Amino acid sequence: MKKDGIFISWESHTRSKSLSRALDIRLFEIKVSGNRFKRYLVSVIKTILLIRKHDPATIIIQNPSIVLAFVSILLFSWHRKIVMDAHNAAIYPLEGRYKLLNNFASFLLRKSDLVIVTNDDLHRTVEEMGARSFVLPDPIPSLPVRSGKTELKKSTLPQIIFVCTWASDEPYLEFLEAANLLQKEYMEIKITGRAPESVKIRSLPNNLELTGFVTELHYWNLLESATVVVDLTTRENCLVCGAYEAAAVGIPCVLSDSVAARRTFTNGYVFVENKASEIAKGISLALDSQRELRDGISEFRSIHQSYIRQKTVALCVEIGF
Question: Which in 60, 68, 162, 184 has the greatest CB count within 10 A?
């Protein structure tokens, strides 16, 4: 490890992998199965042992988990620098519905030496809470190293891949209705992630497949085989991972329309309202504008990579690397 710092996450996340690689520090993903009590207990113990073993001067933590943030700040902030990579849920936990939880999240932000956020709107919000903030959008992720042939068979039909975790901020019911509107069109639609039972028992269009959980390699194969990638959210200030992943594979992408998304994803993207009819129109537009959008997303990737290099150098200075 070239720098006196480590990155800790309690889940596997594209941003953490890309960010740790950009900063050239080692990422530790602590993933524990079992019930919530077991996961938290074992994760806390592993985190403490990990920090004591490596004894870093700087600890970068992904939040969520809010428990990881609390333990790191409580036990190690007095003689180490704590840098929080704050996702939207770290600033608005449970969509901001509970005042006490919001206050606790704000407390953790203020106690961090630096809070990394993805866009200017979140930067202003965090600064207003009294925390010190730095804007760094997601780097373009690197594709995994492959050994052997691709897992997927080539299809003659256009492939629509909806990147979905079935979370509360994802308008997946609207997407399912959009798929219904498109079921007579010449395309195949696939939705990633573990769908809830309420979705599995629905009558789904014949051209739609729920992929369920897939390996990382299979996931990237899905994206590379796509004609259009779709990633949707109801959060105004959320820059979704699927948008960066689409840029990594050079595939046009349909996104929920927001000021933050339009400011960041300048070329190669189609923006839609989170309504079934608009999502269906956006997918059709992306299919009809393939050459223009592919050229645009390639241009975006090049510009964004240059921007991230500059911002990463500035972040290293800010942290003290």
Answer: 162
Q: For 139, which DSSP code?
A: P
How many C-beta atoms surround the C-beta of residue 152 within 10 A?
12
Cβ pair 286, 254 in contact under 8 A: yes
Reported as type and span, the H/E element at residue 108 is helix 99-111
Cα distance between residue 89 and residue 84, in whole Å: 12
Fold topology of 5-136? Rossmann fold (3.40.50)
How many residues in total does the chain contain? 321
At 40-70, the pLDDT tens digits run 999 999 999 999 999 999 999 999 999 999 9
Closest by CA position to 114, among listed 130, 129, 131, 127: 131
| 283 class by beta-carbon count within 10 Å (0-12 exposed, 13-18 middle, 19+ buried) | buried
What's the CATH class of domain 159-304?
A: alpha beta
| 63 to 60, 92, 108: CA distances (angstroms) | 10, 11, 10
Full-model pTM: 0.87
- For residue 141 the two structure tokens come to 């992720």
Domain boundaries, the chain: 5-136, 159-304
